[in-house]
Specification:
GO terms for molecular function: flavin adenine dinucleotide binding; FMN binding; tRNA binding; tRNA-dihydrouridine20 synthase activity. Catalyzes the synthesis of 5,6-dihydrouridine (D), a modified base found in the D-loop of most tRNAs, via the reduction of the C5-C6 double bond in target uridines. Specifically modifies U20 and U20a in tRNAs. It holds the Pfam family Dus. By secondary structure, this protein is α/β, with parallel strands linked by helices. It has 2 domains: 220 residues, Alpha-Beta Barrel (TIM Barrel), CATH 3.20.20; 76 residues, no CATH class. It is 45% helix and 14% strand. Strands 1-2-3-4-5-6-7 form a 7-stranded parallel beta sheet. Strand 4, helix 7 and strand 5 form a beta-alpha-beta unit.
Length: 327
């Protein structure tokens, strides 16, 4: 989710669900050791609970960055051992770390020694064309026993490190949810969260029959309003009522206005809410207004007014359209 789940995206998602754990984009240790720490770690207090996802392979560097994350207020530190991009591989971290489970265990132990918040690992079920489950079972066992990790977020595909793009790595290697379920049965004392290709509340509920949690990525981004029902359905918050889409847009417009007042282009954030009205009549017209670069100099509130007018006009045109006559 690089370039997707930035702080603006997470603020928007938090308007939809208050209890679901959100994750940052992967932040490399190099970016924090040698770059602008504030730019990478700043977030709005509304975003809690929030996990910082780190990319790196040097225990001391990861421990330092974990301390930074805790100091900035993150609720969890997550080590990414699942990203398959060649750029990440050149840095010797991401999915290629699965080939070195003892190094991962050293990294986790160093981070756990450095912070009091939970340290978790996100990984694949294998690398390259390994078909059996022994590889991932040994990886989990080593990282749990030697590193002390108790929470594993498992993308239920192998990562093919050569020959596939990151996008292809999300689509071509087959999904093997049964492998994640088997890990849970073999390590019942550990927490397993399944990830990969899951969309819709029915699918989430089905997976929760077998594992401890579900991570949703692109499906949540493209159909964000699905999240509005999660607090009541999956987090036991019986009093949580889904906010209507107009109220969510209003809250996001307030945020965009505050952002514009700081001098940052509000379009950096508005792009994340374009899926808010997906599935509604007129959604395409509403989205087209918010996406119109010619309106970037207008205030977010003005653009929202125009977008809602386009939505209403499209809905009225649909209602007034003559019914098809059977012939």
């Amino acid at each position: 989710m690089m370039d997707w789940t930035d702080r603006h995206c997470r603020f928007f998602h938090r308007l939809l669900t208050r209890r679901t754990l959100l994750y940052t984009e992967m932040v490399t240790t190099g970016a924090l050791l040698h770059g602008d720490v504030r730019r990478h770690l700043v977030f709005d207090a509304l975003e809690h609970p929030l996990a910082l996802q780190l990319g790196g392979s040097e225990p001391a560097d990861l421990a330092h960055c974990a301390r930074l994350g805790e100091a900035w207020g993150y609720d969890e530190i997550n080590l990414n051992c699942g990203c398959p991009s060649e750029r990440v591989q050149r840095g010797a971290f991401g999915a290629c770390l699965m080939a070195e489970p003892r190094l991962v265990a050293d990294c986790v132990r160093a981070m756990r020694d450095a912070v009091s918040v939970p340290v978790t690992v996100k990984h694949r079920i294998g690398i390259d064309r390994i078909e059996g489950d022994d590889f991932v079972r040994d990886f989990v066992g080593t990282v749990a026993d030697e590193g002390g990790c108790s929470v594993f977020i498992v993308h239920a595909r192998s990562a093919w490190l050569k020959g596939l793009s990151p996008k292809e790595n999300r689509e071509i290697p087959p999904l093997r949810y049964a492998t994640v379920q088997r890990l849970k049965r073999e390590f019942p004392h550990l927490t397993f969260v399944v990830n990969g290709g899951i969309a819709g509340d029915a699918a989430i509920a089905e997976h929760l029959e077998h594992v401890d949690g579900v991570m949703i990525g692109r499906a949540a981004y493209h159909q964000p309003y699905d999240m509005a029902a999660w607090d009541a359905r999956f987090h036991g918050d019986a009093g949580a009522l889904p906010a209507d889409r107009d109220a969510i847009e209003d809250a996001m417009v307030d945020y965009l206005e505050r952002l514009a007042a700081t001098g940052e282009p509000w379009t950096h954030a508005s792009r994340h809410m374009l899926g808010l009205r997906n599935g509604m009549p007129g959604a395409r017209h509403w989205r087209r207004v918010w996406s119109d670069h010619r309106l970037a100099s207008r205030s977010p509130r003005e653009v929202s007014t125009l977008a809602r007018a386009a939505l209403r006009d499209a809905q009225h045109a649909r209602e007034d359209a003559p019914a098809d006559v059977a012939r």
